[in-house]
Design a protein that fits this description.
The chain has a two-stranded parallel ribbon with strand order 1-2. The protein is 72% helix and 3% strand. It has 9 helices and 2 strands, in the order βααααααααβα. The protein is mainly alpha-helical. Helix 1 packs across helix 4, helix 5 crosses helix 8 and helix 7 runs antiparallel to helix 8. The termini are far apart.
Length: 229
Amino acid sequence: MKTKRTFYTELAYVLGVVALTFGTAFMERADFGMSMVVAPSYLIYLKVAEVLPFFTFGMAEYTLQAVLLVALCLIMRKFRRSYLFAFVTAVFYGVTLDGVMLLVGLLPGGTIAYRIAFYVLGLITCAVGVSLLFHTYISPEAYELFVMELADKTGKSVHKVKTIYDCVSCAVGVALSFAFFGPWHFEGVKWGTILCALINGFLIGRCTKIFEHFFEFRDGLRWRTFFEK
């Protein structure tokens, strides 16, 4: 039997967040529609930036995630330390996202071939990032934490809850697009968003199986109990 290599959960956290920022930046560059998870914050960013030019995509991300964490507290009827650190992760993600978008913006692009490549790369990279965050005890973004907490509360599979959450988020994105930019104006929510909503849960599941086939996730530090409270 082949021995699995060790993958430290703390490293999974860092790589997961960074992978998500690159995936989001690639999908934004492709302009076929954002991931359904970030579509609402992207639309808020586009609208607010018209009035406040300093307002970035990253700022919209951790602002919306703060609202989502409040909603999670109300649904679960409790507050945990991990919820607070999920906001820290959201800020880490938001700041990193703004920097990564600048880097990705320097890549050549514009043709349909480049856009398709960016979209596919973004789709896969986002799935890898989410899968890695599901393997760490450090509080993930509010999006992933919300899914994991609801799955635990309802007893449903994480991937099933994730798919439902993605579809709801996609619908919210469409509603915001119509509200902000006029009826039947799909800004940030396009065919790529719909496709992502339908297959993202499957891709995350496949990434998880691949990771768990080759690696055994172990803690490198003794911080787990601190984040579980």
